[in-house]
Amino acid sequence: MNWRHCIFLVSAFSLAAALAAGTARAQTRIGEAAVVKNEVVRVMASGTTPINVGDSVVRDETVRTGADSATRLVMADSTNLSLGPNSTLRLDRTVFDDANSYRDISIKLTTGAFRFVTGNSDKAAYKIQTQVATIGVRGTILDILSQRGKTTVVLRDNGASRVCTLTFQCIDLTKPGDTAIITFAGGKYTIQKFSTPPWTFACGAAAGLCNTTQYADATPTVTPPVDDGSDPTGMLCGR
Questions:
Q1: Average pLDDT for 181-190
Q2: d(Cα 134, Cα 171) in Å, to the nearest integer?
């Protein structure tokens, strides 16, 4: 083998390693599917692929459920996020504080019904968006219904949530049952607060859909790989 061939091989291996590292960064693993009923898929430009129990979810990923379908995702900070039938969300942005908590995570609830149970991250870490609202979470359980031109947010447990329109009209939910309804019609946003929720997330859509588990419990048990100093799961790539 001549020296030019050696240089070519070294360059090729270096390029492959760089591409692999870039893929690992792009595919930062931020949670796993703990419950899957019927059609639950990840949506990509090339099409869709099914999500099964134990499969990872990654940042910059869209998850969608079909009719008579549901899923519960357990995030790395042990936040539990449930989706009812015909629901779509995007795991838009994540910055890890450490392996078990986020410094910043953004989730877009495009359409459908969701239950959000906060985990170990700082209360300011999560940014939840719908088509007409932004939602801040402070250590509680929220039911969220995202529809065309309308979002309903119900506080289900102790804690609090601040709900705002996209034009920064805000109300605080501080007692279980407090509900915010945001609508957009005729070019105008309206936000109202109620003490009795008109809607609730359908926990019966799938067995275990409204249970809560720790991320470590949701992760399938596998034989540990040899520690070569790398980060094959990409869990820390968002730091």
A1: 97
A2: 11
